[in-house]
Amino acid sequence: MSLYLFQILNGVGLGMIYFLISVGLTIIFGLLNFVNFAHGAYYLIGSYLCFTVVALTGNFWLALAIAPIAVAILALITERILIKRAYHLPHTYHILITLGIALIIQELTISIWGPIGKSVAVPEALQGVFQMGNFFYPKYRLFVILFSAVIAFALWLLLERTRFGALVRAGSEDTETVSLLGTHIHKLFSITFALGVGLAGLAGVLAAPIRGVHPFVGVEVLGIAFVVVVIGGMGSFTGALVGGLIVGLVQSLMTTIWPQGASLMIYGAMAFVILLRPYGLFGRA
């Protein structure tokens, strides 16, 4: 029983990381109608920046503060220089442009840090395990769950209780009308893109002490993020949260029940949801 409880908590932790990755992807698509295939590459940058800051300073908390902001700034620069020129183009061009960006980031990562994966130490304050009776669970993984939940709640407040959130939600419904009402729509696009990508960078930092960092993780993460978005529904905050938790729990539990099929069952869950609801659990047609 303790083993399954352990795996369930692992699944929740993974699910919250997947949520942080996919919620940015779904927000960007919901408002900008832009398909970002470079999303996993920004996660990759976040994880390597975490490794670098920890290697130089030994301070994980500094990495947790710096890396997501640095990734968001890089995303803002990329959006201003290149991506905003493609918003009006068909999705085929979005895919080609962002795939190119992802490949450039991956090759630069290999050139700077090498092709061999790196490990990031768990911060000293979170080393060891949390004990409750006969059940033991790593403190860092528990921190990831709680911290991600706080970020998810803060993001919900931002999107549901602020003027910025109202503009994002209105823009996802009718961008032209929001623009005619006086909103600087391109500025809104840029901030939304940077926010979504910054969350992917944050996920890269949180996952680094658990899974390490390597230059090919971006492709893997991108695939999982799209599975989460398909399950939850494109453009839905709630869908990203529920989809992330479903994928995390399926992956974690299947690692115990059927290790060889853990990755396969993620796509099985996606196929099952598509059969029941083609637009995702919380998506709209």
Break the fold down into its secondary structure elements and pairings.
Elements: H1 2-32, H2 39-57, H3 60-81, H4 91-113, E1 129-132, E2 135-138, H5 139-161, H6 163-173, H7 175-180, H8 185-211, H9 217-232, H10 237-257, H11 262-276
Antiparallel strand pairs: 1-2
Helix pairs in contact: 1-5, 1-6, 1-8, 1-9, 1-10, 2-3, 2-4, 2-8, 2-9, 3-8, 5-6, 9-10, 9-11, 10-11
Task: Write structural notes for this entry.
It holds the Pfam family BPD_transp_2. It is a multi-pass membrane protein. It is found in: Cell inner membrane. One of its GO terms (cellular component) is plasma membrane. The protein has 285 residues and is mostly helical. The protein has one domain (2-276): ABC transporter involved in vitamin B12 uptake, BtuC, CATH 1.10.3470. It has helices at residues 2-32, 39-57, 60-81, 91-113, 139-161, 163-173, 175-180, 185-211, 217-232, 237-257, 262-276; strands spanning 129-132, 135-138. A two-stranded antiparallel ribbon has the order 1-2. α2 (39-57) packs across α8 (185-211) and α9 runs parallel beside α11. The model has no long low-confidence stretch (mean pLDDT 89).
